[in-house]
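Progress narrative, Year 2. Work on 2-dehydropantoate 2-reductase from Alkalibacterium putridalgicola advanced from sequence curation to structure prediction during this period.
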Amino acid sequence: MKIAIAGSGALGCGFGYHLQKSGEDVTLLDNWEQHIEKISNDGLNITVNGVEDNLKMKMCRPNELNEEMDAIFVFTKSMGLKSMMESIDHIIGPDTKVICLLNGLGHLKTLENYVDKKNIIMGTTVWTAGIDAPGITHFNGQGPVELQNSDPNEKEGALLIVDMLHKSGLNGVYSDNVNYTTWRKACVNGTMNALCALLDSTIEEVFSTSTIDSMLSGIVTEFATVARLQDDIELDIEETITYLKNLAEKVGAHYPSMHQDLANNRPTEIDFLNGAVAEASKRFGIEAPYCQSVTDLIHAKEDIMGIHSAPTK
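Result:
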């Protein structure tokens, strides 16, 4: 299968690596020139769960790939989704499957502007990753990659992608309610990502603080309220908090992506996470003080660092 990875940062490289190792024809797409040059010349240097490897991979800018793909995995930052879809329009054919594994909320509406709904597959992953230098990444985890077709009549297409991921070692599973897992993943990023970024700490350090229970309860309650009102999704608050704590035990040494963004002077995805919950709460006539404060503090930190804030949806 011809596969493009649209947005080949840490997670994109990790997925591309696994798919190529299992025999798929993979092309990495990105706009970071140093990253492209390093991988094109020296291959991808990647450490997967502590094991180092180097793999020669094709990589170029999105506008330099000139053939239709069978499948495209989208791994941009939330605020970069629109521009990426515009730049890869020429490689999307009538049967090209587009698999979205982005953090954040509201991406299906954006994708529908560029792809027939029958070809959109939404999903979540709990694998973690990071970039150590151009062309050098690490990738960790063993959790599931949950996928579901957006069009109820297109389950067969989603199952093909699930099978491909499973065979590649990425633990693909089919979900009958990916909206639920998307909201639960948003809770992961709205707590771990945001708090680690604000406190300049690893997940383990944040989850060891004396205030973690209060912070988790406040943020998760606001996410759960909006999930119910906006998408009719029922998140069990206590179960979600338990899930977050169990996950933190497994990936505690990790600095999540929002922390990595600030460390590298890049804008964060906060407007598609806590910011999205705060804005939705206003529409419903309720307050979300935790999410609003977290969003304001992240943007304040971006301002102090001179980072151009990401546009809101």
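The first strand starts at residue 2 and ends at 6. The chain has two domains: 2-176, 179-305.
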